[in-house]
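Hi there. Long-time user, first ticket. I'm pasting a complex I've been working with (about 227 residues overall). I'd like to know whether the download I got is complete or cut off, because the file seemed smaller than I expected. Thanks.
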Amino acid sequence: GQNIDQPTEMTATEGAIVQINCTYQTSGFNGLFWYQQHAGEAPTFLSYNVLDGLEEKGRFSSFLSRSKGYSYLLLKELQMKDSASYLCAVTSLGSNYQLIWGAGTKLIIKP
Amino acid sequence: DSGVTQTPKHLITATGQRVTLRCSPRSGDLSVYWYQQSLDQGLQFLIQYYNGEERAKGNILERFSAQQFPDLHSELNLSSLELGDSALYFCASSVALTGASTDTQYFGPGTRLTVL
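Hi, the file is complete. Here it is re-exported in full:
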């Protein structure tokens, strides 16, 4: 079956760097998405990875290793507004291209 | 602003009642997805429509139904409401359904349903 694991909660300090991991098990991997969701608001798209390697977008970077079934989201120069949940989602042939969502990682930023 | 609109923003109703949530996708998007998110819970996929036809079903109760109209807007109907149906309901849209980057889902602001 399809499965996604993320840590439930992480805490980091303003100005620091944090890495949020996501591991997945799927057949026919076709891409991995990261979304940010502030409490009570809609998820917003952050990144999409389909090939191995690092994709950088400003303060946020996302990494993928298909052979390890592993991705991480790296947030640099943390700001208080980065306090949110970060959702990992995978699409695959095995899920008939439906997005399989992780439960999300709640990131708490402390001053 | 994602370009996806949802109405109403808030809905308060009583148990046993029926409500309809409405979603308009981004211009050009053919797929519409409905999700339920209860307090402090993850996103639960309910159903997807693609160009007017049901494409995939998730954990959608029989009391819930949806449709996508020729102009591509979609409605989610929730009937015989129970206290446990209180949640945020999100609609998302995407261009296609291939699972590629073109299938990035863009979410509307959600409808907060409270069942008393």
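A couple of notes from our side: The radius of gyration of chain B is 13 Å. Residues 4 and 25 of chain B are 5 Å apart (CA to CA).
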